[in-house]
Structure formats: C-alpha cells, structure tokens
Amino acid sequence: MTHVSVVIPCFNAGPMLVESVRSALAQSYADLDVVIVDDGSTDQATEDALGDVARWDRVAVHRQANGGPSAALNTAIRAASGPYILPLGADDVIAPEYVAEAVPVLDSRPEVGLVYCRAEFFGSISGPWRLAEFSWPQVLVHNMIFVTSLYRKSDWESAGGYDEGMRGREDHDFILRMLSLGLVPHRLEGVYFFYRRGHHTTVNDAVGADRRILVEASARMMRNNLPLYGEHAEDLFTYIFRQQDEINDLRYRYAWFERIRDRYPGVLKTARKAKSGLRGLLAR
C-alpha cells in the first residue's frame, strides 16, 4: 500500500477540527496519517481541539506564525511522510471510502496528477456542490477541482508548492501549475467530500467580494502560469467570447426591463422593499 498523508491547515477552526481529523482517521484505507499545521490560531477553542487531537495515534501537530493557507499547506506537506498527499480543510470532512477509491488511480495511471470526487455542502447550506465538468476553457478562469484532491508529493515539489504570496485562489493556481506539468485530473463518481458552509468567511470569500483583490489574485495566477495560458489561448478566448455572447443575449431579452428601470427608477426600490417585507412576514 502507498502511504497517504492527510494534511490539514488550521486557523481558528475550533472544535470542527476534531470532526475533520476523525473523518480522516476513519478512512477504510489503513496506511494513512494526519499532519496538522496550526497557522497561528488565536482562540481557546482551537487550542483545546489541537490539544485533544495531538494525543491521538497517527496524528502530528505543528505550529507556526500566521502565514496564510499556502504557507500552512507547504509546511504540512514538507513534514508529511507519505508519497501521496490529501489536503483537507480544518472544518471539512471526507467519507470513509475516499482515499481507498483514489489511491489505485494514482498507483495505476502515471498521467493522472489529481484525483478528486463529487462533493456536497453541509452546514448553513446543504446539497450537491454542482461543479462543472473539467474543461480547458473553463479551468483557465474558474476552478472546478477543489483543494481536497489526492496527488503525489513529488508532483507538488515539481510544481513549486503553493504560492505563499497569494491571498485567495491559491488552490486554483496550484491546480493550474499541476496541469502545467502535463498531468491530467480524474474525478471519482462517488460523493466523498463535504464542504462546510457558514463557519466563517474564508480568504476566497473575501477575494470574491472585492473585485480589485479578485483581479490582482487572478492576474498573479496568470503570470504564474503564462506558458499554460499561451498553450491554451484559443480555449481562453473561446470562453471569453462565449460569455460575451450570453451577456449580449440577456441584454436583448431584458432590454424592456432596463428601459422601465431607467424611466421609473423608484419601481425597483419599491419592489425590493416589498420583497424584504414579504420575507419578514414569512419568517414569523
């Protein structure tokens, strides 16, 4: 069996860290350990959780000053003993079958660099996480491969690890640099990853909410992967022009609404107030 290290970057995850570690240790695949890097947590609940899991078999806890998710992941992977790596968020969980299903793919297919699965949300939002099928036009702009994917430690080294200068989109950037090595992704059909929503605002949430930061992170990601973008320039522009066609179609379909809004600007404000009032009544 090929040894697998589940690496967990942790920052103020509280007791949810315990649930995450338990899901890793509950894997049906036995040749596995867990490496946790506490990235400068400041709350007592996380300190207590780290103290609990540090006493468990097959779990190692490392601590460092806060450096962000990329720095924590790189530290954990450097400390990992397994030739196969599976990152896991400190508040997310994986199903017991995940590693056992993923390892044989890497073992038997050298061209595959990333093995992931289908996923679901849980927490404040529940249900399937409907990520798009992998395609070059889309992956150059939007990521459809989450960070909790199995890969080889040697490929992480060849890709240069996670970019510690990025604040947001670091997992997307890393996926592109793995693909730049000529590797391909493989998705398992099982639902083995569960992504928690509603715990706290993540770095990527903050990036997505601020267009300036999003542009800066995306530009850095492109500069990190310029040869890949050059190789797939046609795919990139196919995606851009397809999006523009869809926007133009929507503008044509709803031109009447724009005219009403421009002519009667108070209508939209009134409609929003009515919608908010209706929500309040229904919530009682």
From TrEMBL:
Residues 5-142 form the Glycosyltransferase 2-like domain. Pfam families: Glycos_transf_2 (PF00535). It comes from the Bacteria. This is Glycosyltransferase.
